Amino acid sequence: MAGVEASVRYLINGDRDCVQQALAQMDLRRKVNLLIGEWKAAGGGDVLPDVRDRVRLRLVKTAVGPERASTRR
């Protein structure tokens, strides 16, 4: 989804037609909203992780990863 958003921004900044990419972006957003709705209907009530949580988890994994990777080789 981030790639589609970036392509829309690129086309807009270049004053070009972005109808197809914008429609694809809206379709992706619609699908995400449907998936969230299904998740909530199935009993999902937890707070979904945001970008900061994912970055924090990725930093923890990379800090632990190099020692483990060197022992595998």
Would you summarize the structure shown here?
With 73 residues, the protein is mainly alpha-helical. The protein contains three helices and no strands. The radius of gyration is 19 Å and the shape is flat.
Largest sheet: none
What is the count of helical runs? 3
The secondary-structure class comes to mainly alpha
Proportion of strand residues: under 5%
Mean pLDDT: 81
The helix content, as a percent range, equals over 70%
Low-confidence stretches: none
Shape: flat
The rounded distance between the terminal residues' Cα atoms is 36 Å
Number of extended strands: 0
What string gives the helices and strands in order?
A: HHH
Description:
The protein has 73 residues and is mainly alpha-helical. It contains 3 helices and no strands. The protein starts with a helix and ends with a helix.
Descriptive keywords:
73 residues; mainly alpha; 3 helices; 78% helix
List the helices and strands and how they pair.
Blueprint: H1 2-13, H2 19-41, H3 51-72
